[in-house]
Amino acid sequence: MKILLLEDNSTDAELTRRSLTSELPGCKITIAPTLKDARECISKDENFDIALLDMSLPDGNGQELLVEIRESGADMAVVMLTGSGNEEVAVAALKAGADDYVVKHTGYISQLPANINIAIQNYKHNQQLRTGQIKALYIEHHTSDIDLTIRYLKQYAPNILIDPVLSASEALMTLPDSNLMPAKHDVILMDYRLPGLNALEFIKIIRQERKLDIPIILVSGHGSEEIAVQALRLGANEYLVKRENYLSRLPIIILNAHEHHELLKKQFALAESEEKYRYLFANNPQPMWIYDTETLAFLEVNDSAIQHYGYTKEEFLSITIKDIRPKEDIPFLINVVGRLDNVNNSFGEYRHLKKNGEIIIVEVISHALEFNNRKARHVMVNDITKRYLAENELRKLSSAVEQSPVTILITDLNGTIEYVNPSFTEITGYTSAEVIGKNPRILKSGDTSDEAYRILWDTITSGNTWRGEFKNLKKNGEHFFESASISPIKDNNGLITHFLAVKEDITKRKLAEEQISKLNESLEHKVSERTAQLQAANKEMEAFSYSVSHDLRSPLRAIAGFATILTEDYDKIIDAEGKRLLNLITSNAKNMGQLIDDLLAFSRLGRKDINFDIIDMNAMVLEAYDTIVAENERPLINISVQNLPAVSGDFSMLKQVWINLISNAIKFTSQKTDRTIEIGCTNEPKSFVFYIKDNGAGFDMSYSAKLFGVFQRLHSAKEFEGTGIGLALVKQIINRHKGQIWAESSPNQGATFFFSLPVEPV
User: Fold this and answer.
1) With 0-12 CB in 10 A as exposed, 13-18 as middle and 19+ as buried, what is 289?
2) 695 by DSSP, 3-state: which?
């Protein structure tokens, strides 16, 4: 089967192609997005079995092509597609020669295969009507109009034979007196304005008195809506205004009127076999019912309706069709029913309500009939809820794929591209038309090895997913990087049918990584240079420290040694003032030595590596106290130590902290008779805060900024000895442990020193 699809919506076109190729094996589909393209396809290949024509197109209306197809005599069925369920549009399409009319409601694509088969059958039937003779009684008093009509039909519809009469009275003489007698004519074509008996009176006689059911087509030179309504109410089947080119529509109208008449005859024949109909109605697997078109009450229901909707038969017959609709849908229902008064057959998709409150989506086919002398409609229902939900999900998925910011590509088993999304076009510069039917290697840049491609292919053909990166080429020759995930698509039997590639443009990330790499190389170089500089500086500092330690200590040892000799050997000849001066020399030499030791310790601390261990702070405090305080001095100091937590730190450094802080507390309480020292700890969310509190001399907090500086003293050397380096050393140690140190005090009220250490190891 060869199908021409005129559709400008690429998504609908693709979904239609997939559905038809799946449901109609062996069919060949040609897609044309414009009228121009469709005309070219028909001119190249006139052997299409059916054409599916969209009504709304960028360059016109699909109905234009329908008229061209029918006027050319092309042998193909035609189905009109539209997004609007407008009844007038449908009627116009059918009058123009369409074999079927499909509204683009949700799920229409899945119905197209069935619609196509029906349309082809309708086309074959219509062809029989077109080729078979139709005798038309033409009542027209203008001989020129008669002549023009006969000439046109001989040329374009030779199967329609015109039998002209000049008045309605003459026509009555050629027609049977009742519907019990056979008629010589298949259709009556008549002008509205006639001499003597007018058209409306003629129709009244034909329909009401003689009860003839011959189709009547009224032709008028005036487009009066009032006349048309009157004629149609009296029994006319069609109304045609004599506008320009009206004759081009006449053959289709005559054919449709005749076909409709033949259909009615078949319906009457069907009514005669009522028992058969009732059997089919009752036992049909699809829910069916008959309802009164005036009251909307159910008149009859079958067992399938009872089972599907949950009502008993008695309950069904006590309600109306409004009761099986959601409340918000009832106004629409009333509107639809009102428009069905003059429509024999109808099709639609609606929401229905079961007895249990469940809402379902259904397809409804109905036709007019008379039931127990009441105007009614027969309804057949097909529950499409599952299909509707599935198609809705499919549409969501399709929209997601189309709108996805990443590239999506689908190939067949041979790697031939079947689909790319808009992101592919945006990133690569290739249109879908340029790549469909091609292999993805059109993007190949040559930077990926053949071995890598082999591994990729082996991975996906074995049913697994491959992930990696490509350096590819755009259409314009520009390189770009992609992160790709390529997976097999399997059918219900687990067989691979296609391959799916999902790719993300990572060009910006790659360029950023390259820049970062270059910056890291530069930084590493600078770090190496700085490290070398620091190592050289450290060597210089070590040399300086050695020089200080060696060269300064040597004269100090000499000064202290000779002062001691003078004191011991010349004690008897040196007077008291001389002995005092020698003591001053010895004391200052001793202080100078201590100062050198402290300075060296301070300078080495910054270069010393920290070795972290878990430290028992209680044991360390006691060890530091024992190191400082002599046995005979301990009873003079009242010291209390709380239970301290273990911390992570350098043992020797933290011990030095406690030695210096405890030493200070002991030193600055030396002038107190009741000397007290308290050591404890408080827990903060991320740190331990240790403190040592004394009742000594204290200090003025306005000078606290100087407290931890090198050589900074808040008391004179006469009051309390010291070099002024101890607290600076403590601060440096605590800082290297990522902690902080501070103090609180008042003069003569003692002082409290605090330092924090992280809870978690640094």
Assistant:
1) buried
2) coil
Helical ranges in 99-212 per DSSP H: 108-131, 143-156, 168-174, 199-204
Angle (nearest 5°) at CA 35 between 34 and 37 = 65
Cα dihedral 368, 369, 371, 376, rounded to 10, equals: 20
Question: Which of 734, 762, 730 lies closest to 613, judged by CA?
Answer: 762
Q: Is the dihedral of CA 142, 148, 152, 153 positive or negative?
A: positive
Number of Cβ atoms within 10 Å of the Cβ of 182: 6
- 37-72: per-residue pLDDT in tens? 999 988 887 688 899 998 888 888 888 888 888 878
Cα 740 from chain centre: 51
* pLDDT (tens digit per residue) in 187-243: 999 998 888 898 999 999 999 999 998 999 999 887 677 888 888 889 998 888 887
Instruction: Report the alpha-carbon distance of residue 406 to residue 421 in Å, rounded.
Output: 9
Total number of residues shown for the chain: 762
CA–CA distances in Å: residue 686 to residues 97, 341, 410, 635, 744: 85, 83, 55, 37, 22
Which 3 state secondary structure label does DSSP give 604? helix
Nearest CA to 703 out of 671, 669, 727, 674 is that of: 727
Residue 609 tokens, joined = 């590596």
Which amino acid is located at 201 in the chain?
E
Q: What is the pTM of this model?
A: 0.33
For the chain, the farthest-separated pair of C-alpha atoms sits apart, in whole angstroms, at 179
Distance of alpha carbon 487 from alpha carbon 314, whole angstroms: 57
Quickly tell me which residue has 């054409």 as its tokens: 51
Beta carbons of 661 and 623 less than 8 angstroms apart: no
